[in-house]
Amino acid sequence: MQNTSLVIEATGLEKSFSGRAAVCGIDLRIPKGGCFGLLGPNGAGKTTTLRMVLGQCHMSGGQMQVLGQSMPAAKKAVRAHMGVVPQLDNLDPDFTVLENLLVYAAYFGLRRRDVEKRAQDLLAFVELSDRARTRIGELSGGMKRRLSIARSLINDPEVLILDEPTTGLDPQVRHLIWNRLRSLKRDGKTLILTTHYMEEAERLCDHIAIMDHGRIIAEGAPRELIRGYSEPDVIEVQGAPAALEQQLAALAGGRVERIGETLYCYTRAARSAVAILEPMSDITYLHRPANLEDVFLKLTGRDMRE
Ligand SMILES: Nc1ncnc2c1ncn2[C@@H]1O[C@H](COP(=O)(O)OP(=O)(O)OP(=O)(O)O)[C@@H](O)[C@H]1O
Ligand SMILES: [Mg+2]
User: Fold this and answer.
1) What's the gap in Å between 73 CA and the centre of ligand 1?
2) Which residues fall within 8 angstroms of residue 81, CB to CB, at 6 or more apart?
3) Which helix H or strand E contains 241, and what residues bound it?
4) In this predicted model, what pLDDT tens digit does every residue of 74-112 receive, in sequence order?
5) N or C terminus: fewer CB in 10 A for the chain?
């Protein structure tokens, strides 16, 4: 029986490109409301997964229900209730900011006179009202991203899919977008987000799935993941001699990792570690709580992808 409290329910979802597996049989259960984060290194399969959810790319295997309907058969009906901010902006350069919203609305069969007010409201929502008549080529990257978000909302979607909505944006724009996404969450929309900014995921997401090599390798609320996969404290030490590395490694309940000149001490005994470090004048160190980035690096490793 279908579960109506889930916006997406997928089992064994697979995708291969010319025999190469990009998504290797993942299960997804995304509840209505809140923000679901799909994290993973470059090439992990995040965009491919989202494209299957939207029916933009064929599933090689598995089963999926979106908004209670079987995919890909129901993709047209489902698409009417979804908003999409793609990884790469695909705004129409031949049109102005406002026209981009109106032309996009036409794809959903929405009539111009019905959406003009909504388009103006959405431009105000992303603080682009004064750019309504500007051509796309004259917009900055941040403005394009904000317009893509406004455009994704033109059909008043139940579910909003955002593939790296803040990549390459300055802190001002990023904070504005976070603010707007929180307000959409409060309105009861379901957000599905990918990001490489762990801080963003920690702030916005209620539930996170970490993907690597086409598989989901960990899932949970951000706090749960940090508690479950990392020691509570991290001390980053610069200029540590080998003897200090051994001394820190010998402290109970922790692990030490050296990356170039930096020693990462993940520990349950931060006070003892700091007591060792404090009197040492020839090193510098930073003591901080563990975060989602620590979990991400622990689970997916430090090797570069692709
Ligand atoms: N149209 C395609 N044809 C062939 N291979 C593809 C295609 N789209 C994606 N892939 C491959 O599938 C794998 C997953 O790609 P995908 O774009 O889903 O990763 P991602 O997690 O979104 O990465 P990123 O963080 O870089 O956006 C990669 O190895 C990629 O090269
Ligand atoms: Mg991607």
Assistant:
1) 23
2) 67, 155, 157, 158, 159
3) none
4) 999 999 999 999 999 999 999 999 999 999 999 999 988
5) N
Residue whose Cα lies nearest atom 9 of ligand 1: it is 48
User: Going by C-beta distance under 8 Å and a sequence separation of 6 or more, which residues neighbour residue 190?
Assistant: 7, 30, 31, 32, 33, 34, 35, 36, 158, 159, 160
Percent of the chain with pLDDT over 70: 98
DSSP 3-state of 175: helix
In the structure encoding, which two tokens stand for residue 233, read together? 């404290």
Q: What is the pTM of this model?
A: 0.94
Q: What is the pLDDT of residues 124-133, one digit of tens each?
A: 999 999 999 9
68 phi/psi in degrees, rounded to 5: 80, 5
48 CA from centroid of ligand 2 (Å):
7
Alpha-carbon gap, residue 246 to 239, rounded angstroms:
14
Residue 12 carries which side chain, given as an amino acid letter? Answer: G
CA 164 – ligand 2 centroid, Å = 7
Establish whether residue 16 lines the binding site of ligand 1, counting it when its CB lies within 6 angstroms of any ligand atom. Answer: no
CATH architecture of the domain with range 6-226: 3-Layer(aba) Sandwich (3.40)
- The residue ranges of DSSP E strands in 239-289, in sequence order, are 254-259, 262-267, 284-289
Cβ(281) – ligand 1 distance below 6 Å: no
- The CA distance from 40 to 67, in Å, is 25
In the chain, where the domains are located: 6-226, 231-289
pLDDT digits (tens, 9 = 90+) for 192-245: 999 999 999 999 999 999 999 999 999 999 999 999 999 999 999 998 898 999
In which band, very low, low, confident or very high, does the pLDDT at 1 lie, cut at 50, 70 and 90? very low
What is the third-level CATH fold of 231-289?
A: Alpha-Beta Plaits (3.30.70)
| Nearest CA residue ID for atom 22, ligand 1 | 47
